[in-house]
Amino acid sequence: MSAAITRLADGLDAGALGVVVSHGAALRIGMERLLGFPAEGIGVLGPLSNCAWSVLSVTGGRWRLLEYNAGTLPEPVIGDDR
Fold this sequence. Notes:
Layout: H1 2-10, H2 24-34, E1 53-59, E2 62-70
Antiparallel strand pairs: 1-2
């Protein structure tokens, strides 16, 4: 999983967004690998809930976990120009 995410990220233009959809355990273990957790540390991150998402970024060649197991969207913004 971590290799697949890395391949996806390497193929993106600067500032582009990539989306990976899979089972929670595969995603969690892949993220743990990307973040550099040792194999013995599998399970450091808690379970990934159904229909939840996480946000990763690469900065200076290092992966960062920006959000984990998010499940709610921000409130919609309604402009004055209805």
